[in-house]
Design a protein that fits this description.
This is Methylmalonyl-CoA epimerase. With 133 residues, the protein is of the alpha+beta class. 23% of the residues lie in helices and 40% in strands. It has an eight-stranded mixed β-sheet.
Length: 133
Amino acid sequence: MNKIEHIGIAVKNLEESNQLFASLFGKPHYKIEEVASEGVKTSFFKSGPNKIELLEATKEDSPIAKFIAKKGEGIHHIAFAVDDIKSEIARLKQEGFTVLNEQPKKGADNKLVAFLHPKTTNGVLIELCQDIK
């Protein structure tokens, strides 16, 4: 794993949260994107070299909707940049982590993504991200 790629925050209302985070960072989001397969609409902010991804559910049965129903708004995941997501998945499985995606899938921000189950990472959902070339 190379670095923290972004921190994902689940929100109920993307428009209101965009305003809040624009005030917090002193600048607007730089991208909004929908990932229909995951039932989520995302918005990205930069603060120095760091990125924050806001996630709003677009379907009632999406993972973000379920997360908010159970835990409320807040930090949803920490994403790490990797060079080779398939080899990283294999390495982490060998280390005993439970991988939620045997094969990476297309995520937001032009990335291939895979997730590690929070039960094997001290309660934190970990996302692996590789740039799509």
